[in-house]
Specification:
The structure is a single chain. This protein has 310 residues and is mostly beta strands. The protein has two domains: 229 residues, no CATH class; 51 residues, Dockerin domain (Type 1 dockerin domain). It contains two helices and 16 strands. The strands form two sheets. Strands 1, 3, 4, 5, 6, 9, 10, 11, 12, 13, 14, 15 and 16 form a 13-stranded antiparallel β-sheet that branches. Strands 2-7-8 form a three-stranded antiparallel β-sheet, with no helix packed on it. The two termini are 33 Å apart.
Length: 310
């Protein structure tokens, strides 16, 4: 199996930055001074921006589980309890840039001039991705049609929550967003084993609530004039609501045993009058006719059986 995902997040941030110079504890730190000439000390510089973390997972080999139900009479398939670790011990990356607007200022230690910018994209940080998962968040019902070679072609859309965690801008980073994973592929059933291959796609844009404010967070800004150095700043500001766009693709190969059909008490692959007769024979008793596992066979189990009638 392979998995590729790119999540682009955009969150507005406005505030100030100031050099990390402190007269007693960090005398070699950066100082910020507004304008091209004059001034002294260490002065906060106002800015506005859009912070743009990008999460990249490229050709990893995911692991996970799910249940795949299939009714050969109706052709209905269902996916449940899907949980995929899309990193599975491999490497993902977080890179961050900022779409910046600020007025001209200078720095000391290092000595550099930052000419005022308006909506210029500046790379500011690379981080680490420590976790990435896709977990099912709702029911997924699809259809399967027989192929001439004895296999079945299927299509089903699975609602999932895409979750990632790591560090960016030297801060812990988490993001969870809903998405729809469209799965298409083929499966075959031989005896008590099922083999399934599928291609999956995700393309989803969702809102992102504003994160907590930044207060004197370390922020390294690459120098421009001259280039090649880094100004060490402390950034404080307030975020606004943003957005997250996830685009992903997967190629999944799975093997397992067929998921049981609820109500198929005699195990013939369909829910019919034969199963109804067995349920009635087991009325008020525990055992295989207790479909909801509450300790006895009653009307609740009858309702479950009828809801899965073939």
């Amino acid at each position: 199996s392979t998995y590729t995902q790119q999540t682009n997040i955009q969150i507005p941030l406005a505030g100030t930055w100031i050099g990390n110079y402190l007269a007693v504890t960090n005398e070699t730190g950066t100082r910020t001074i507004p304008g091209l000439f004059g001034g002294s000390g260490n002065t906060a510089i106002p800015f506005s921006s859009t912070v743009k973390p990008k999460v990249s997972i490229t050709n990893t080999h995911p692991t996970g589980t799910f249940q795949f139900g299939f009714n050969p009479v109706t052709g209905v398939v269902d996916v449940s309890n899907l949980l995929v670790d899309t990193l599975a011990g491999q490497t993902g990356t977080i890179s961050t840039s900022m779409l910046l607007t600020y007025s001209t200022f200078r720095t000391v230690q290092p000595t550099s001039t930052f000419i005022g910018l308006t909506n210029v994209d500046v790379p500011v940080d690379s981080g680490s991705l420590t976790a990435a998962t896709a977990s099912q968040s709702g029911a997924a019902i699809g259809v399967a049609t027989p192929n001439t070679d004895g296999t079945w072609a299927f299509a089903v859309t699975v609602p999932v929550t895409i979750s990632v965690a790591g560090t960016a801008l030297a801060q812990p980073f988490t993001n969870s967003s809903p998405a729809a994973m469209a799965l298409t592929g083929t499966f075959s059933i031989v005896g008590s084993a099922i083999a399934l291959t599928s291609q999956g796609t995700i393309n989803e844009t969702v809102p992102v609530p504003a994160p907590p404010p930044l207060v004197s967070a370390p922020f390294d800004l690459p120098t421009i004039i001259p280039a090649g150095q880094v100004a060490h700043l402390l950034i404080s500001g307030t975020f606004a609501d943003g957005s997250s766009t996830t685009v992903g693709s997967s190629s999944l190969v799975m093997n397992g045993v067929p998921a049981p059909i609820i109500g198929d008490i005699n195990g013939d692959g369909v829910v019919t009058g034969a199963d109804l007769g067995l349920l009635l024979a087991g009325w008020a008793q525990p055992g295989p006719t207790d479909l909801n596992n509450d300790g006895t066979t009653n009307g609740a189990d009858l309702g479950l059986l009828l809801s899965h009638w073939s």
